[in-house]
Amino acid sequence: MLYPCKSIAMSTLPRLILATRNAHKTAEIRAMIGDRFEVLNATAFPDFPEIEETGTTFLENAQLKAEGISCHIDGWVLSDDSGLEVDALDGAPGVWSSSYGGEEGNHAKNNARLLLEMAQETERAARFRCTMVLARGGKAQAHFSGTVEGRLVEKLNGTNGFGYDPLFIPNGFDLTFGELGDEIKNSLSHRSRALGQVVAYLNKQGLK
Ligand code: ITT
């Protein structure tokens, strides 16, 4: 008697390991390249260490994360260090975007502090920046960067995305990333611009 084949939970796509536990970054990256790569993040590997972000630039932190994870697994590892730079605040919160409100990863507190710091400011220009590092065998192989310019609004608008998205309007639009939604964000974000270069690089290495 013949039995129907069981579906096997294994992907035939090339694997890309993200050196992050941030579910939002992972979801965005997966939405952008999940049809071309099997995208896993550090939560799939409970033995991976926590990497301390002791750098003072996006590139330093991205390199620490990519190399720190890549020495524990074969294959390509991709890190993402990103943040918001505000002109009126001399580039703050920048590299310290995720703890700006005093508590690591607390987006409500980060946004509350940003609103407070910007309350009297008329100069509202800001940008998101993303630096990605690809590592293999514990060594960084290449780095990539993407930015999206825009301006800050005076109150939270929208619930899409994460982090500072409800406060940021990208140039050319009148709505925040929080209102525009994933599809538009992923078509022009700092992350998508860096990721486009990552994919081109991996394709050149024969990974398609
Ligand atoms: P990993 O280090 O594990 O990747 P993380 O959340 O600590 O995760 P970062 O150190 O790169 O990541 O800090 C990113 C912070 O920058 C994030 O917490 C947000 O506050 C902000 N940020 C980055 N990209 C963003 C985006 O697309 N939209 C809104 N805020 C963003």
Task: Give average pLDDT, whole number.
Answer: 94
CATH architectural category: Alpha-Beta Complex
Strands, total number: 6
Low-confidence stretches: 1-8
- How many domains in all? 1
Structural class from helices and strands? alpha/beta
Report helical residue fraction.
25-40%
The sequence of SSEs as H and E is: EHEHEHEEEHHH
Structure described in brief:
The protein is α/β, with parallel strands linked by helices and 208 residues long.
Walk me through this protein's architecture.
Helix 1 packs across helix 6 and helix 5 crosses helix 6. The longest helix is centred in the C-terminal third of the chain and has 15 residues. This protein is an alpha/beta fold and 208 residues long. Helix content is 29%, strand content 23%. The radius of gyration is 18 Å and the shape is globular. It is built from six helices and six strands, in the order βαβαβαβββααα. Strand 1, helix 1 and strand 2 form a beta-alpha-beta unit. The termini are far apart. It has one domain: Maf protein (Alpha-Beta Complex), CATH 3.90.950. The protein has a six-stranded mixed beta sheet with strand order 2-1-3-4-5-6. The site of inosine 5'-triphosphate has 23 residues, from strand 3.
